[in-house]
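Contributing new records

If you add data, match the layout below exactly. Sequence lines come first and carry their own label; structure lines follow with theirs. Keep one chain per record. Anything else will be rejected by the validation script.
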Amino acid sequence: MKPEWKGLKRLPALLERFKYPLGVLLLGLALILLPVRGGDGEAAPEPAPAASAPGESRNAEDYRAAVERELESLLSQVDGAGRVRVMLTLKTGPAARYQSDRSVSESRDGDRVSASTEEKTVMLERGSAYNEPAIVSTAYPEFQGALVVAEGGGDERVRLRLSGAVAALLGLGADQIIVVKMK
């Protein structure tokens, strides 16, 4: 006896009903799985992990610019969008958490007990003259808002699709995304 799958008969109707959310989901997965490329075809460098590193703002700007280029490329493929320009603002820069060694010592002097804690950052040695801190984890910059200027931005459906795609990809709320028509 062959089992009958009643759910398979409803699949085309469900796909038609949820084609836009599925499309945004697939677009987001593609963006996550594709590496961000620099202009010369090389993989773009990761942002500097140290919040106080001298080149931090430059690397954060490079990261923002790379994400903008990737979004422009993807959003311009949305039906009805036409040419697209994207501007993103950063909420936070890159941040790193460093490996540290913590030591606690206690001393007794009669009835008094005192404890002291010492914490040192673990340093990695690279040759005799260069040391750098050991990084446990790196947090990439967070985005604060997005402006999307599109040729098809005058159509409400296109604005909704573009806004939904940006929200899904960057984790921004609808109030943090503005989509306008390009002149």
